[in-house]
Write a structure and sequence with these properties.
Strand content: 5-15%
Low-confidence stretches: none
Order of helices and strands: EHEEEHHEHEHHHHHHHHHHHHHHEE
Distance between the termini: 53 Å
Strand order of the largest sheet: 1-4-3-2-5-6
CATH architecture of the largest domain: 2-Layer Sandwich
Radius of gyration: 25 Å
CATH class of the largest domain: Alpha Beta
CATH superfamily of the largest domain: Ribonuclease H-like superfamily/Ribonuclease H
Number of strands: 8
Number of helices: 18
Length: 396
């Protein structure tokens, strides 16, 4: 397959952007990608948006425009399908800058994982496998904040959307032939639900902090308040969360909460200037956490060592899962993680109450029911002595 021929306008002026939006409104699908700078910010700075539709390809210089007014309506248009590859960050970023979550969308990496290309196939690999084209990698580490962008940088950026339509067509055919269109739509719905401001409640952020589950319930309540305050502070200053206070320091403040500014100065990792500037706000967050009634404390599962026999059960489930995934040309990690299987084993009689992907939707039909039957002793697992494959036998 030869490389598609497209125009490559570089959009830096409002009039150009309005004309681009007019053309995009006529499309039934558009391909999207973004480049951004996020290392030193709470909300990454969106630098360029690469767009393809029909025979048109364009690079939109976001800082030059200053605003993306009018683009959000296109992203939310139910009659225009948005095609992306590994698009979680793109979806988050576009939602943050336009107020609209791109809907409907088709993520080629997610779809590729369902038809035999592996769990997280790279765009360049997918391009080569589907179209035979080998992409250049000369500008992989480009600083997209520098201006002016060179013509070769713009051409490199355009390649990130140039092949999305042929890949989209190819994957749609594969999904249809395998009867998996509903499966992939279920995955897109899960991804869509995790995007946008509503999915990032700062009061739930504490659960992403390593070690929170080892705290006592009241300490976890303090951590919840501290993490929410840090999110608001980082957003106000537009800096990474860790630049306000590091995760491990928040955990220490929650575990042994100081009650005065002076005792706070003794907390390792908390800089004196941060205490001078924001000590009162930190103390206020701690006090809010300590004042929360026990009925509203976060649920913290009591820590326990896995039972000796559970390790063998998890290994057995992993073997069955891998065999089932191989049969369906999928990566096992797409179906369930090791922690999912551990939770499944440890739940014993309460497995149906677990909120695990493997116990819902297409995953349950494909492998979840089988794993439950293995744990219930309703099937036997053995090795076929001829082919060496895992064999599952249902008991009569």
């Amino acid at each position: 397959m030869t490389k598609p021929h497209h125009q490559h306008p570089y959009i830096t002026e409002r009039g150009q952007f309005e004309e681009l939006c007019r053309q995009l409104r006529q499309a039934d699908r558009i391909a999207l990608d973004t480049e951004f700078i996020g290392e030193d910010r709470f909300t990454p700075r969106l630098e360029i948006i690469q767009i393809a539709a029909g025979d048109l390809c364009a690079v939109v210089d976001v800082p030059a425009l200053g605003t993306l007014d009018g683009f959000g309506d296109i992203l939310a248009d139910p009659n225009i399908e948005k095609v992306l590859h590994s698009g979680r960050q793109d979806l988050d970023l576009l939602a943050a800058h336009t107020g609209q979550v791109p809907t409907p969308f088709f993520d080629t990496q997610v779809a590729a994982s369902m038809v035999g290309y592996g769990a997280q196939v790279a765009y360049s690999q997918l391009v080569q496998k589907v179209t035979g084209q080998k992409l250049e990698k000369a500008h992989t580490f480009t600083n997209w904040s520098q201006r002016p962008l060179l013509p070769e940088q713009i051409s490199y950026a355009i390649e990130d959307v140039l092949f999305l339509f042929p890949i989209h067509d190819h994957l749609q055919k594969r999904l249809t032939s395998l009867g998996r269109l509903e499966w992939v739509e279920e995955e897109f719905a899960r991804l869509r639900a995790s995007v946008g401001a509503h999915a990032h409640d700062p009061r739930e952020r504490y659960q992403r902090i390593r070690g929170w589950e080892n705290l006592k319930p009241q300490s976890a309540a303090v951590l919840r308040e501290l993490a929410a305050w840090r999110d608001e502070e980082a957003q106000r200053r537009n800096v990474p969360r860790g630049r306000v206070i590091r995760d491990e320091v928040l955990v220490e403040l929650a575990r042994r909460p100081p009650h005065t500014i002076e005792t706070m100065r003794g907390v390792r990792g908390l800089h004196g200037n941060e205490v001078d500037k924001r000590g009162e706000a930190i103390l206020a967050a701690i006090q809010r956490g300590l004042a929360i009634p026990s009925s509203e404390w976060p649920e913290v599962a009591p820590s326990k060592r896995p039972e000796p026999e559970s390790a063998g059960q998890v290994d057995l489930l992993q073997a069955v899962l891998k065999a089932r995934a191989t049969e369906e040309h999928m990566a096992p990690t797409l179906l369930a993680t090791s922690s999912d299987l551990q939770a499944l084993v440890e739940a014993k009689h309460d497995r149906e109450k677990l909120d695990l992907p493997i116990l819902a939707g297409w995953r349950r039909k494909l492998a979840g029911e089988l794993l439950l039957q293995v744990l219930a002793g309703k099937v036997s697992v053995s090795v076929d002595h001829k082919g060496g494959k895992l064999k599952v036998s249902h008991h009569s």
